Amino acid sequence: MSRNPLGITDTVLRDAHQSLLATRMRTQDMLPIAPKLDAVGFHSLEVWGGATFDSCLRFLNEDPWERLRSLKAAIKHTPLQMLLRGQNVVGYRHYADDVVERFVELAHHNGVDIFRIFDALNDTRNMQTAMRAARATGAHVQATISYTISPVHSNAGFVALGKELAAMGADSICIKDMAGLIAPYDAYDLVTELKAEVGLPVQLHCHYTSGMATAAYLKAAEAGVDVVDTAISTMSLASSQPPTESVVSLLRGTDRDTGLDLELLSDIARYFADVRKRYRAFEGELVGVDTNVLAYQIPGGMISNLVSQLREQGAADRLQEVLAEVPRVRADLGYPPLVTPTSQIVGTQAVLNVITGQRYKVVPKEVRAYVKGMYGRPPAPIDPDVQRLILGDESPIQGRPADSLSPELPNARAELGSLARSEEDVVTYALYPQVTLEYLRRLQSGISVDTGVLAALAVALAAQHPPHAERSAPTTSQPSAWRTATMGYRQGAWAGLR
Questions:
Q1: What is the CA radius of gyration of the chain?
Q2: What angle do CA 434, 438, 441 make, to 5 degrees?
Q3: 208: nearest Cα among 243, 252, 246
Q4: Cα separation of 68 and 95, whole Å?
Q5: Residues in the chain with pLDDT < 70?
Q6: What is the rounded CA–CA span in Å between residue 279 and residue 491?
Q7: How many Å apart are CA 52 and CA 454, to the nearest integer?
Q8: pLDDT tens-digit readout, 41-81
Q9: Following CA atoms 316, 317, 319, 324 in sequence, which dihedral angle do they give, to the nearest 10 degrees?
Q10: pTM of the predicted model, to two decimals?
Q11: How far apart are CA 194 and CA 6, in angstroms?
């Protein structure tokens, strides 16, 4: 047995199908394999958060809370973890502190053991409420560094961020490489420095988009990383994670031997190979490696959305112009990491700039809110000329965005009224009012929608509409312009784990 086994978090029940199958995997396809996943001995299983909450309600006619409870009942020994977007929770705007606090409390009560908490801008002010709330429940608080490459980002800066997160009460640090940008030797250096200077367990989460992730994991393992995220082989690669079995095999017989059973993993892989066939209509366009992510720092799922927007406008031949414009817009806006929701903000503005033929002639409401400071503090100052163009003489806010938000749960509770079956329904309504109302009204009226039938209908619809173009986008003061460019989204425990 290895003296220092590398922990493995498998993402097949969350990020893998979010990355590959537009987040459409149903709970009924997860539960039959849950006991085998539980028997592997994973460090944890990522099962909730990200886009899964929205997708359950919007596309699958499922209660996301019931999914969590069902998985917790079926997975009795392996810690369950979720991805939490800080003050955005599992939505696309900032919510008041009472919503964040109650969501975290209920998520832990229903089964979340580890909260991976991030902010798209690495603005720690947007993480503090969620971290404090998770710590109060006794859950494990994994504070996250959103990794990216730019003139203003460096390993030294990420280590300083790690120290700040540790001081805020983090139990561990996750390096979240959502675009597959981290090079193997950079991974080695960053993990080494975090382990030496921050003194907390470190986990590395990569997407395979650029083709570097497995090599990055190997170098990170050499540097002492505690855990890496993988996906079972039949749900891996492309914009998903590296294959679990490959990482296990790479380290066999070494000091970092995971000790996981390849035969059991093969059984699980065969199961998901069959499951994946049911979701063929939702397969992403990326099959192998996408080198555009290295040239433009654009995640693979984001590129598919850009293609969809341009096709809708009969401008698919202008993709290269948009790919070149995205880094320019990102620089103008202070080099935000391209992760939800900033990837949508930057990508949509880039498409509008190209299609209209004049930069910032049309500015969506969300871009204006970003420049106003309503999403937090950008990593670098916004270009002054762009700021003046968008805000005029108006000044950006200086404080934490959520400080301007009044409590939201009392109104949500009053508006939902007798439709609410539980406190979970109230929180869900606060996050997604319209979608939640539709879902609860169906339940109250006794309309039962078989998810198998829904899936068949979805397949038929997908033949007419690309799945990555189905996502609804926020409203804007320029509705026709927004329709011109609608950006969807694709996108053994540690000692002391409480």
A1: 21
A2: 135
A3: 243
A4: 22
A5: 1-2, 300-301, 304, 447-498
A6: 16
A7: 16
A8: 999 999 999 999 999 999 999 999 999 999 999 999 999 99
A9: -160
A10: 0.89
A11: 17
